[in-house]
User: Fold this.
Amino acid sequence: MNEIFVHLSEYSKHRHPFRQHYESGLDTYIVRLQVEGMCQALVDGEIVAIRPGHLLLFQPGDIYDLRIGLGEEGNAMSGDYYVMSNGPGMREWWEQKRRPTLTTIVEDSRIQSVWHQIVMEKRRLDGGSTAIVTSLVWSLLMLIDRAIEETPDIQSPSAHHALRMRQYVEEHAYGELKLHDVAQHTGLSVSRAVHLFKSHFGVSIIGYAQQLRLARAVKLLDHSVLPLEQIALDTGLGSYAYFHRLFRSQYGISPGAYRKQK
Assistant:
């Protein structure tokens, strides 16, 4: 894994007008995700509005012009994660494919969680372990690549809501998952959320959660000695009776018999 040297990484929040301008060109790569509020940035020679979900990518030599609260909207509230870095790892990642300056990704708490870990590691008095930071940044970059790939080429509100719901289900499938909470996460009614999810992914919200739970149950059966009742609880399937019925329906064998044949 080629090294990545992080010069600075933070969660930046502004409530007053602010401008950051590198007129002679950057000497680092910048990866920046807008999380709250809005700002403006120079993209392909034009100043454009940057809103939550917008991902900005810059390479050394690019002109960088970021403006907060200086546009016609006068909005001086903006929050973003960013990382300024160099090194052979960043060059390797950048050259894997074409990197547009501005793309849109669906908000993902996993991306923000890894970003937070990078920030915390860099805040250490020793500046953080290069090996740990490199691993974390590579994880961040790969998550970003997947988020870009999963974002539809033609953005629509329905596609955006469907992806946000899927991510919510993936993050909460192993606990008490309620349709109301999934719908509320995207500001939709339950009926609209249920219809939208099924139309985009060909499976119901609960059906998708069951797929995730059963997949995790199989891994626990393969690689742990947990009692079957505990596996049912840990995967969000609840009672063993329900786990047994669902597992047998999906795989044609009981969980106990599956474990014995391994």
Observations:
- Residues 5-150 form a domain with the Jelly Rolls fold (CATH 2.60.120.280).
- The chain has a mean pLDDT of 91.
